[in-house]
Amino acid sequence: MLTRILTLVALTAASSAAAEADRILKLPPLPVSATPEKDEAMVELGRLLFFDPRLSGDSSTSCASCHAPEYGYGDGAELSRGYPGTKHWRNAQTLVNSAYLTNGLHWDGSVGSLLHQVPGAMGTAFAANIDVTMAEERMKQIPEYRNRFLEIWGEDPTIDQITQAIAAYEHSLVSADSPFDRFAAGDVFGFSPEAARGQVIFAGKGNCVSCHNGALATDEDFHNTSVPRNPEFLEDPLVQVTFRSAMRGFGVAKEVYEGLDRDPGLYAVTQNDEDMGKFRTPPLRYLTFTAPYMHNGIFYTLDEVVNFYDAGGTEDVFGTKSAMIEPLGLTDQEKSDLVAFLESLSGTEIVETYPDLPDYETVEVAVKTSAGAGDFAANASTATPAAVAETPAESSFSSTSAGLVIGMSSGTAPTAEPSSGRREVIVQVGDNLGIIAQREYGDVLRYQDIYEANKDLISDPSNLAVGTVLVIPEL
Ligand code: HEC
Ligand code: HEC
Questions:
Q1: Ligand nearest to the CA of 247
Q2: Is residue 381 included in any domain, yes or no?
Q3: Which ligand is nearest to the CA of 85?
């Protein structure tokens, strides 16, 4: 008898929910480009690049470091990790279905499209922190990559192609097989009674659908829902450093960002007071795998999220809180039904294996062993690879065979306090010398790390001063 009642309730709820189904539509397939055979090759190349830490300045951080498949293509932390030595002030977003977003990426909508986002993420000091020349150069020195670029584009790797390939991989990250999708396609029995009742609350008493609508359950608009602040924002100095430097980059006034105890969201982009605390409504299609939630990862469970909305959010710190966020008066049953509905929006987990990455070319190289390599600091800011190549040509070299040679082109011993300016990291392959990275002096500790890890390989550690060359067979 009980079962029959539940089934009836489910069917009634399901049919009224079906009327709402067109407000959360099925996702259409996403075309990558017009040439499917190239698409496949591009997606596969993009997949390798996505997981390849060599596309970051110190070869430590790939896209997948912060967008890991096992964390729903986020990083599982409240606030995202950053490039070594930095910490992000926001939660890393999932990339699943992000190819569908059309009104700006990031929590504040500040990035136009995936094609803008990739070079942005690569170049940003607190993400991958690599410059374009270095990225292209590293790709060229990996024969398998070089061949793959040649096959697809008929030329050596460029930043545009690296971008296209990674974006193509992101296009492949689609989740559209949720129980809700099956329900919307007419399969009412694949949908639990709880989820069906939750759907009614989502569209009715809960008023979630006002902002979470359309195929991704987002209006892609910006709202202040009064999410509580994350204490880490103020307490972790690294978060503050990154936040302040990003705000400066946006052109936000110092008096403003120094006075904030939380992320101003869209305000950073528009610098319009009405946009304080507004964030882009996130899609809800992969929630099961993407905790913690919100721009600052403050909630770990969907129960917490629903309790937050049920309470009508929190205090209106910026005076910009949405009028749509009001106490809901949900019963415990209604809350758990709503959670069941949210869960029904996630399909199966996208399982990805970390690929075996192709190796650098092994070459005969000359290793610079003496301290007479010269100080490049003087011309560092204007140095081109050609200009730098001239100086070491005058220095003494001794021959050895190894993988890559990374040289610190200037500066004092890595432990010394740097003065100012930048140093180059140079790579030498045969007779060719090129800059593969530029580092601020503040990065000095990283070289110490490289040194510590590679001590045994260094021909003469006492030379680890000006012009030291570290032989690093594998990056
Ligand atoms: C150090 C961590 C980190 C690295 C590395 C990183 N990201 Fe992100 N990513 C983030 C964070 C944090 C956000 C949210 C940023 C914001 O809102 O300001 C984000 C946002 C995004 C978004 C926007 C998604 C949306 O829903 O709007 C995309 C797309 C993205 N990243 C792709 C990439 C790609 C591709 C790479 C590699 C080239 C990459 N990221 C490297 C941390 C990282
Ligand atoms: C006024 C528009 C609005 C309404 C109404 C609204 N949301 Fe949201 N929702 C947002 C915004 C904006 C965010 C991101 C807020 C932030 O991070 O500060 C969000 C975040 C979320 C998240 C976190 C997703 C993630 O990936 O981090 C969930 C889950 C969610 N909302 C569910 C709901 C539910 C359930 C309701 C109804 C009870 C609801 N929302 C009502 C705008 C809204």
A1: 1
A2: yes
A3: 1
3-state secondary structure of 363: strand
Q: Is residue 63 part of a domain?
A: yes
Identity of the residue numbered 99? A
- Ligand 2 binding pocket (C-beta < 6 A) is 206-208, 210-212, 223, 225, 227, 279, 281-282, 284, 287, 290, 293-295, 302, 305-306, 309, 322, 324-325, 338, 342
Question: Residue 214 has what pLDDT?
Answer: 86
The tokens 């007479």 sit on which residue? 372
435 lines ligand 1 (CB under 6 A): no
Q: Which structural domain, as residue segments, surrounds residue 320?
A: 31-175+207-329+346-359
Q: Whose CA is nearest to atom 41 of ligand 1?
A: 63
Q: Extract the tokens encoding 5.
A: 């009642």
Q: What is the pLDDT of residues 32-84, one digit of tens each?
A: 554 566 689 999 999 999 999 989 988 889 999 999 999 999 999 999 999 88
Q: Give the distance (Å) from ligand 1 centre to CA of residue 12.
A: 42
The string over 355-379, giving b where at least 16 C-beta atoms fall within 10 Å of a residue's C-beta and e elsewhere, is eebbebeeeebbbbbebebbebbeb
Is the Cβ atom of 128 under 6 angstroms away from ligand 1? yes
Which of 465, 467, 469 shows the shortest CA–CA distance to 416?
465
What's the token pair of residue 110?
Answer: 């500040």
464 and 382 share one domain: yes
Instruction: Give tens-digit pLDDT for 330-347.
Output: 999 999 999 999 999 999
Q: Residue 140 and residue 160: Cα distance in Å, rounded?
A: 14
- Among all bound ligands, the one having the nearest atom to the CA of 47 is 1
The reply to whether ligand 1 has any atom less than 6 angstroms from the CB of 244 is no
Give the angle subtended at the CA of 75 by the CAs of 249 and 285, to the nearest 5°: 100
- Contact predicate 270/117, CB 8 Å: no
